[in-house]
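Quick check before the chapter quiz. The format below is the same one you will see on the exam, so make sure you can read both the input and the output lines.
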Amino acid sequence: MTRASVAAIGVVLLGLALGLAGCGEKQSAASATAGNVAAPAPAAVTAAQAPPTAAPSDDLFAYAAGAQFVQIPAGNDYGDLNYGPINMIDESLVTDWTSEAAGKPAILVLELAERTAISRLAFDTAGMLRDEKSPRKITVEISDMSAGEGYNTVLATELKSGVNGQSFAVSAPAVGRYVRLTISSNYGDDYYGLTGFHGYGEQLTHSATIADVSGTYEGASGWGKVRLKQEGSRVTGCYDYREGLIAGGVEGRLLKVEMTEKVDGGGTDKQLGLFYFSKDGKFTFGLTRQPGEDASRSLAAKYSANKVSTDIGDCPAIADWHGKAAQSQLSAELREDGRARLDGVNFDFDAATIQPGSRSLLDQVARMLDENAAWQVTLEGHTDDVGGAAFNKDLSERRAAAVRAYLVSAGIAPDRLSAVGFGLERPVASNQTQSGRAQNRRVEIVRK
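Here is the expected output.
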């Protein structure tokens, strides 16, 4: 089975997404007026137009920042891989959200990962099949209470059609976790559309996490059963398609993973991704790229699955699946590939302090080294490019040294361990996107 065939099993590639650019949109001779709805009089708000370059680099509305839509228009599907609302926050300018106008406003609510002070908003309206889908009159409100109440208007304005990077300063920093976007009219199409919705400011808390994801999930047809096991911050697993394996770590509200699949003729295919889990734990959704892929291209694939059981089932390729699964999987990777990512080893922001949730994984690494007494390994620290080369070189060295120190404290002989920091020198993904930078921040363990 080729990568292109994954589209039939719930994984949509860029080529297919572009090929289906007109699918699902009804054509109507009355399209010139169907989407234009009179907007209610907004509260008085100052909406100062500003250049996009004035915005901070981290988009706090991005999927990669842990933001998720919790309210979408009727008829929308969060997991719609062609026109779902995920396309507004996926860091891609070649995908867009589309929703039927039907003579009424479209209302979407975005839940942020953390309580946040928003200082700037930005919108992308170019790159759609028809510029007329672009929102015209919009209102943005912020709530610090819930998805359904406590909103204050922070922006009421008109957007231009077919223009990316339309940036607006909020008159005063607005604090909250819920962002409500109301689109009241467009430029004459039967459908609303939006390529990007962005927010910038400062996260005021850093406590986001996800519940234990262990269990069995039913992927879209063809992806088959997905089985996950969480041990502390580390998650391992497998899935039916191409006898796939998952190795990853929880970071805030997302699961950062490396997915490995067998390919025809031998060898393996790898993807790096970020997975979101709904609050009730019954649904997961993931966006992936090939390692080193150009950020100007769309995402390699999108996955979704529904949880059907808390039973983790069986993963035959992970020898000690029902025992120390993380240790078993890491051992296999080091034997076969000579190196492995230690996703799940997390540090305090811009620091080398290992977070408590990482200890379970490091304890399994220590047991693995204890059981393979002949192994000598190097701990490699890697970073993104934010902060410059010198800062990141030092940070990566300190983080690698911190992992080495933990393993020594767990009983591993110091002369079996070395630590080195490469800083931003060896990225595995583009630093042009937040999802890519997340993949570049990592510690790897390498057999000498």
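If your answer matched, good. Confidence is low (pLDDT under 50) at residues 1-56.
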